[in-house]
Amino acid sequence: MKVKLGTVILYTIMSLCAIVCLIPFVLVLSASLTDQVALAKDGYQLIPEVWSLKAYEVIILNPAQLLRSYGVSITVTVLGTTLSIIFSTLLAYPLSRPDFAYRNPLSFYIFFTMLFNGGLVPFYILLSQYLSVKDTILALILPGMISPFFIILIRTFFQTIPYSLIELGMLEGASEIKIYFRIIVPLSAPILATISLFTSLGYWNDWFNSLLFINKTQLYPLQYMLMVMMQNIEFMLKNAGRGLNAADIPMEPVRMAMAIIAIGPMAFVYLYFQKYFVKGIIIGAVKG
Asked: Fewest CB atoms less than 10 Å from the CB: which of 70, 80, 130, 163?
């Protein structure tokens, strides 16, 4: 079997690019396993000069809280992504139908929210007073559940599905719900997987809503818990006097260890969705 020279060169270049993209991750992992003094002296190394697990020992000092925060983040990400996909597709589907009478006004209303919003204070008052979701898990789910940009992206993808398939379903006596679940959803796997990836990343990395609405430590998601831990460590180092130094709490390795702990689950999620990622973005952005 003959292999073209161009194919070999292409695969070689892509392999080198993949290795280059992995180097920052390896450096972060190496720094998290490096002694604080050695890291300050020798800088970042692909292989640690002096190995140390001190950073991870600091983070898992309270393993119950860490596991609880992991559970909160996983719950919020799964529920938020699922609800977001359901409501976004149910809204985008009628907007993609040429026979929907109010598609243009509703599309403009959705697009308008991308340009202007009510501001932070009304947002806080709405969730904390009118919806009364403060210190509940809904405060972490509701703010990111609907994205106008994702709705427009899904609508654009739906418009690429031939309308003749919908008409055929109508001729066969299928209801709108049946057409939606039997025809539209199965043909939309690339865009749904792409939006699911973006949405899950948004939920997983969110800490701002926790800062606004969450006071109970039992509801701290992982990102917010790590941020609070880092602030506490910095406060201790600045105000503990001579009894505590950088060697006792390795700040830089702790930061790197937090990054490793935070990105781990999302790395596996991306590996699952990546086969749909490029196709979903390209097809969803072709038609305006």
From this structure: 130
